[in-house]
C-alpha cells in the first residue's frame, strides 16, 4: 500500500463523509520504457572489439621492426573465430528487445600521409602459400605508397558493426536499426621499405 493509499484508508476509517466504499484506489501502473530505449540499453551493454589482425608481407627487420614493401599488395585479414555477432537482450516487464550487432567492415588507416584509408567488406582472406607479391587479396589488401626512413607508420585497424534490433512493446512486435558501432583502433607499427633483401622472414629457419 502506498502512502497515499494508507492516508486515504486512515481518513475513511474514522467515518468521515465522502469516503467511497470498497478498497482504496490502486496506485497507477509504472510507465514502461519504449523498445527504442531498451535497444539503446542493449547496445551499450556490450563492447565491440577489433579481432586479431594478420598482414602479409609482414617481415621482421634486424632492428626488431616489422615491415612490408612499398607498392606491394599487403594482405589484411582478421581471425575468423573472433569475427562474431553479439546478441544482447534487455527486458522490462512485458517489453523486451534483442539487438543483433554484427561485424561487417575492416577500416585500415595507413597514417603515412599519402596512402588513402581503406575499407574492406568482411573479415579478409588469409594469403595462400606461394601467392605472388604483386597479386592483390580478393577481399582486403592495401598498397603503401610512402616508404619510411628508419621509422614506422602507426597503421590503425578497426571494425565497423551494424546494429539492428527486434522486440515487443507490450502489444505488438517491433524492430529497427541504430547507427553503426566502431571498435577501438588497434595500432600496428609498420616500416615500409623498397627492397626485399633488407628483410628477414620471421617464419624462416
Tell me what the structure shows.
- This protein has 205 residues and is mainly beta.
- Helix content is 10%, strand content 37%.
- The protein has two helices and eleven strands.
- The strands form two sheets. Strands 2, 3, 5, 6, 7, 9, 10 and 11 form an eight-stranded mixed beta sheet that branches. A three-stranded antiparallel beta sheet has the order 1-4-8, with no helix packed on it.
- The longest helix has 11 residues, at 3-13.
- The protein is elongated.
- The mean pLDDT is 87.
How would you summarize the topology of this molecule?
Layout: H1 3-13, H2 35-44, E1 53-56, E2 59-60, E3 66-69, E4 73-78, E5 89-92, E6 95-109, E7 118-121, E8 141-143, E9 153-168, E10 173-182, E11 186-193
Parallel strand pairs: 3-11
Antiparallel strand pairs: 1-4, 2-3, 4-8, 5-6, 6-7, 6-9, 9-10, 9-11
Give a quick set of tags describing it:
205 residues, mainly beta, three-stranded antiparallel β-sheet, 10% helix
Order of helices and strands: HHEEEEEEEEEEE
Strand percentage lies at 35-45%
The poorly predicted ranges are none
Counting DSSP H or I runs of 4 or more residues, the number of helices is: 2
- Portion in helices: 10-25%
The profile of the biggest β sheet is: 8 strands, mixed
Average pLDDT for all residues: 87
Question: End-to-end span in angstroms?
Answer: 79 Å
**In one word, what is the shape?**
elongated
Radius of gyration: 29 Å
Question: What structural category do the secondary elements indicate?
Answer: mainly beta
| Strand tally | 11
Amino acid at each position: 500500500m502506498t502512502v497515499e493509499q494508507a492516508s486515504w484508508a486512515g481518513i475513511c476509517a474514522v467515518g468521515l463523509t465522502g469516503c467511497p466504499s470498497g478498497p482504496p484506489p490502486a496506485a497507477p501502473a509504472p510507465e514502461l520504457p519504449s523498445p527504442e530505449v531498451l535497444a539503446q540499453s542493449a547496445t551499450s551493454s556490450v563492447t565491440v572489439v577489433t579481432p586479431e589482425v594478420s598482414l602479409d608481407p609482414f617481415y621482421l627487420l634486424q632492428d626488431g621492426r616489422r615491415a612490408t614493401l612499398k607498392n606491394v599488395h599487403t594482405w589484411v585479414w582478421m581471425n575468423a573465430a573472433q569475427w562474431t555477432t553479439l546478441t544482447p537482450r534487455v527486458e522490462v516487464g512485458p517489453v523486451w528487445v534483442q539487438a543483433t550487432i554484427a561485424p561487417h567492415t575492416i577500416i585500415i588507416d595507413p597514417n603515412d600521409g599519402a596512402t588513402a584509408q581503406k575499407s574492406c567488406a568482411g573479415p579478409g582472406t588469409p594469403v595462400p602459400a606461394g601467392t605472388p607479391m604483386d597479386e592483390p587479396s580478393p577481399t582486403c589488401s592495401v598498397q603503401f605508397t610512402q616508404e619510411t626512413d628508419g621509422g614506422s607508420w602507426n597503421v590503425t585497424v578497426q571494425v565497423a558493426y551494424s546494429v539492428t534490433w527486434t522486440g515487443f512493446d507490450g502489444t505488438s512486435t517491433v524492430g529497427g536499426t541504430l547507427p553503426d558501432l566502431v571498435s577501438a583502433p588497434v595500432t600496428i607499427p609498420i616500416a615500409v621499405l623498397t627492397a626485399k633483401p633488407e628483410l628477414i622472414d620471421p617464419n624462416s629457419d
